[in-house]
Amino acid sequence: MCNNPNHPAKYxxxxxxxxxxxxxLVAMFILTLIMGLxxxxxxxxxxxxxxxxxxxxxxxMADVCLxxxxxxxxxxxxxxxxxxxxxxxxxxxxxxxxxxxxxxxGGNSFATLRFTSLARLAPEKNGGGIFEIVYYVQADxxxxxxxxxxxxxxxxxxxxxxxxxxxxxxxxxxxxLTYYDKEGREFEAWDSDNxxxxxxxxxxxxxxxxxxxxxxxxxxxxxxNLAVFRDVSPKR
Length: 236
What we know:
The structure is a single chain. The chain is of the alpha+beta class and 236 residues long. The protein has one domain. It contains 1 helix and 9 strands. The chain has one helix at residues 21-74, and strands at residues 99-105, 108-117, 131-139, 145-153, 167-180, 186-187, 190-191, 204-212, 217-225. Strands 1, 2, 3, 4, 5, 6, 7, 8 and 9 form a 9-stranded antiparallel β-sheet that branches. The chain is elongated. The model is unreliable at 8-15 (pLDDT under 50).
C-alpha cells in the first residue's frame, strides 16, 4: 500500500463514478414515459383544434345557408285571390305554386321545395322579376350530400339539376321542412295546387338542418314567418 498522501487513491468506477446498466434502463424508461405524455398532450391539443375549426366552419356554413333560405322565402311570391282560382283537373299547374316534399337518399331524409320569389343570388342591372327557386339534394363523388339551389327566370322550364346550380351547404346529414297553416297545424309536405291543402300556401316554415358526420353532427334550426301567403281560394 502506498502511504504517499499525494498519490491519487484508486476507486471502484462501477460503484462511485458511473451509472449502472439498471440505472440507465430506468432513466430511459422514465424519459420514454415523459415523452409519450408530452406528445400525447400535443396530439390532444391539435385534435381539439381541428374539431373546433371544423365545428366553426359548419356553423358558418349553416348560418349562410339558413340566411339564404330566409331571404328567399321572405320574398315569396304567390298568386292572390281573386286572380287565383281553384284549378280544374286538366288545367296547367299554377306557375306560382308552393310544393314541398321529402326524399329518402342513402337512408337519410331530405326535404325538397319549389316556390317563386322576388329574391335572387346575383341581381343584374336589368334582372328584376319573379324567379322559380328549387332546393334539392344530391350526393357528391365522396358519397356526402349537398344542398343545391336552382334559380330560373320565367318562363320556368321543367326542373332539371344543373352543374352550374350553386351549393348552399355541404356535409348534409338531413334536411327537414315543417309547414304551418293559418291555424298552426304542422305538415311534413305542402302543395298549394292540391285540395288537401285547400289551395292555400303556408303561413310559416320551420327549417331543421343537420350537418357534419356520424361522429360529429351539428343541428341547426330556424323559423320563417312568411310575409306573403294565400288563404283558401274560392271555388270557380
